[in-house]
Amino acid sequence: MTVTGKTMKENVENLPGFPEDQTIIRPLSNPIKPTGHIQILRGSLAPGGCVGKITGKEGLRFEGKARVYDSEPDFITSLEAGEIKKDEKTVVIIRYDGPKGGPGMPEMLKPSSAIMGAGLGKDVALLTDGRFSGGSHGFIIGHIVPEAMEGGPIALVEDGDTIVIDAETRAIDLVVPEEEVARRRKAWKAPAPRYTKGTLSKYAQLVRNASEGCVTDSGLKN
Predict the structure, then answer these.
(1) From its record, what is one biological process in GO terms (predicted)?
(2) Which CATH architecture does the domain made up of 32-207 adopt?
């Protein structure tokens, strides 16, 4: 029952149908594309999984050289300085912004919007252990697990590394020899937490990874 005193069906049953030539609201038999734009990818860069928003407008496969930033502000400064070039396939990595690293897994709307605003939508893929809003668009991958703060592969990426993202095979890989990855892992040390007391410090210590929903009560006794 609705505020009109009628059911939803009764409210719309006498409305005219859609014009035959309209293409906005499509039937299931004629979708814009056969698959959705939300993709779950896995690979050597995200063994625990990650979430891709890939419509296909910017392509379904991206291969480029990594450009690594340990915070969102560092990336914005670099972009504004003109350090990200058009026609150079670049995989921007913004890390240490996951559930523990953020802490709180901040939204990456500003970086994704800045990339599109700079006209780099077809030249840059954005990868992060942070998250995206529904308004973000471009070749973007978020929710990377394990996150950088936990020493995930994203923490071991260096500038110039080759990264391949394939939405059709749902793969995301760091193309670096295993021996080199092992060397980097041995040398890696977690950075100091951004908060050492208070609510955010407690949150960072309790929160689970993005693939597990970022819950904070896992394992607690009733």
Answers:
(1) branched-chain amino acid biosynthetic process
(2) 3-Layer(bba) Sandwich (3.50)
Q: 92-115 pLDDT, tens per residue?
A: 999 999 999 999 999 999 999 999
**Which residues are within 8 A (CB) of 116 and not within 5 positions of it... i.e. 6 or more apart?**
137, 138
Spatial distance between the Cα atoms of 64 and 111, rounded to a whole number of angstroms: 18
Show me where the domains of the chain are located: 32-207
Could you confirm whether 71 is annotated as catalytic? no
Reported as a pLDDT band with limits 50, 70 and 90, residue 43 is very high
Task: Select which of 44, 78, 133, 211 is catalytic.
Answer: 133
- pTM for this model (two decimals): 0.85
Whether the CB-CB separation of 129 and 100 falls below 8 Å is answered with: no
CA distance 55 to 64: 19
Rounded CA-CA distance 91/36 in Å is 23
